[in-house]
Amino acid sequence: MSTLEVRDVWHRYPDADAPALRGASVAVADGEMVSVVGPSGSGKSTLLRVAAGLLRSTSGEVLVDGRDVADQPTERRDLTVMFQHPLLFEHLDVAGNVAFAPRLAGSGRREARRCARRYLRLVHLEGMDSRDVASLSGGQQQRVALARALAAERGALLLDEPFSSLDRELRASMHDLLVEVRAALAPTILMVTHDLDEAALAESSVVLIDGRVHQHAPMTEIYRRPATVAVARLLGGFTEIAGTVRDGVHHCAWGRLPVAAEGAGDGAAVLLVRREALRLEVDADLGAGPGIGARVVRRRPIGTRVVVSLVGDDDSPLEVELPVGEDVRPGARFRVVLSDRRAPQWAVRDERPGSAAPALAGEPEEDTRRPVVDGGRSSVGPA
Amino acid sequence: MTRVVRTAGLVLALLWLVVPLAPVLVWAGAERWSFPDLLPRDWGVSGWREAASAGLPLALLRSLVLGLAVAAVATPLGVMTGRVLGWRLTGRPRMVVALLLVPLVLPPFAVAMGLDVVLIRVGLHELVSVVLLLSVVAIPYTAYTSATAFARTSPELEAQARALGATPRQARLRVVLPAVRGSILVAALLAFLVGWSDYVVTLLVGGGQLVTAPVLLGAAASGSGNDATVAAMALATVAPPVVLVTVAALRVRGSGRTAPADRLPEPVPDHERMR
């Protein structure tokens, strides 16, 4: 297997107002899996297509094993792609599909089919060599597509939302299969997905928003410490508390809260607090310590928990996650406080529309005036 | 109810095809058939014998060559145009469609007369001129048939093949064309039929030198007065297309399965693709 690196790639579609990719960079080590997540239209698939050579980037480099392949056509890039739809070749049977790349590489028919059977065993489709691909279920078709991609034996495997057309159960079984395949072959994988659980299968994830990489870290770290407000909104479940950081303390309508040293330095900053780290106190006006009075707007059950949406006294939107039995009704007033008032909170620079904070490092001058996130979205993004 | 309607439609379609052919079939085997007899008094093959001596075998051969030549020219050009239209690879599909429709909108007689003069001045051989003109007439059929097939087939198939190591040529030959092969066969058949059955262009541009089966039939029908000979020629002219259509229908049946269009991703314009 090989390393794969996409370096400072820009891409603009014809007639588009803004570039789809704005200096995006991703590096995948040999045998590693990196996932790319982001909202719709963030440039995820564009990034993958540029890496695969299916789109010509405006500028930037694509390196496979350190060799710049940006000017090479797809077939000479030593990588292969598995798309959202299986795209099986219906004039070939199951083994014929998997043997497609070995045949192109010069293997004889028998040898290629023997190779195909090996990969079909790996994806648990042994004995289905001669089946008509149209007769397979969606999950089986996607397994054939995976086997076909693996049988190409390329340096890197690019997965473009490979399981998003499958239902939840099938998706879970494909995730298990991917783990098995990785244990067996250790392929270098760059996977684009909008499913955050799927993204967590990778060693690390790249969060791409508006064509820019906002964060590249393991998913657990991204959940714990989102690098920007936009990342927090993508993950969902965060309450944003605007204020200013001075000497390691966040000053805001809630009072003064200690912040983690690794977060934003002095200046305008937003505290990002997980909704499960907040709780409600009954008396809205008499609480002690940092907190804010708020009125319940609505409640939304999620399994055994309930998400309560409130509006703070400073008109800021808030979300608190509680056990389902709590007596919280729309219109009721509470005081929202932190469960652990002494723990340092995670603060990021305030780059929201209207704030005076600088944009991300390395951003060209013209783009610093563009909002990092869509100002029309609610404060808490989709989970 | 639906089944009844479908059966009635099928019966009507068969009648539509068979009724005009029935008297021709009878005439072709008639030695003597005069009014008011319902059927011929004597049966025989004299009509066929006379048709053969009038040059029917050679005329059929010329028609075959003409049909094949038109199919050979119009099919690949139609498939290429169909790919552009079906996969929306052009920003001006209306202009392409308008260009395709021009030969069908203009009266063939006028087109043939006008182009005949041009082609004679250029010095092209009659057969080449006829093939070129008939190909222009056939391309709209081949292009539209192919465009429909491409529209039902994902443009990503080509990208997928490339990502598995195929060159653009290999991707088209080994993956894309097999995916639309049923429609290509139909397109080729339509082009063949345009060449096989043409009368006006062949007569005018061929200058009477290129005697194909329809030209021979036309001459016999207007001059000989021998109904049995004319019927034999008509049957010989009609039979090959009927056989071809039947064979093609059986071959195409069940082939050309593709993903439903609503499940397919948006096509990527050619200028965005890596060559």
Q: Which residues of chain A form runs of ≥5 with pLDDT under 50?
A: 356-383
The assigned structural class of chain B equals mainly alpha
Distance between the first and last residues' Cα of chain B: 54 Å
Estimate what percentage of residues of chain B fall within beta strands: under 5%
CATH topology of the domain at 64-210 and 241-265 in chain B: MetI-like fold
Q: Report strand % of chain A.
A: 25-35%
User: What is the top-level CATH class of the largest domain in chain A?
Assistant: Alpha Beta
InterPro entries (chain B): MetI-like, MetI-like_sf
Keywords (chain B): Cell inner membrane, Cell membrane, Membrane, Transmembrane, Transmembrane helix, Transport
Transmembrane segments (chain B): 95-115, 127-150, 171-193, 199-221, 228-250
Main location (chain B): membrane
Overview of this protein structure:
The complex is a heterodimer of chains A (383) and B (275). By secondary structure, chain A is of the alpha+beta class. Chain A folds into 2 domains: 4-209, P-loop containing nucleotide triphosphate hydrolases (Rossmann fold); 226-369, OB fold (Dihydrolipoamide Acetyltransferase, E2P) (Beta Barrel). Chain A is built from 9 helices and 20 strands. Chain A has a 6-stranded mixed β-sheet, with helices on both faces. In chain A, strands 13-12-11-14-20 form a 5-stranded antiparallel β-sheet. Chain A is elongated. The model of chain A is unreliable at 356-383 (pLDDT under 50). Chain B has 275 residues and is an all-alpha fold. Chain B has a domain at 64-210 and 241-265: Orthogonal Bundle (MetI-like fold), CATH 1.10.3720. Chain B is built from 12 helices and 2 strands; from the N terminus they run H-E-E-H-H-H-H-H-H-H-H-H-H-H. Chain B has a two-stranded antiparallel sheet with strand order 1-2. In chain B, helix 1 runs antiparallel to helix 12, helix 3 crosses helix 9 and helix 6 (126-151) runs antiparallel to helix 9. The relative contact order of chain B is 0.15. Chains A and B meet through strand 6 and helix 3 of A and helix 7 and helix 8 of B. Chain B: It is found in: Cell inner membrane; Cell membrane. Chain B: Its main location: membrane.
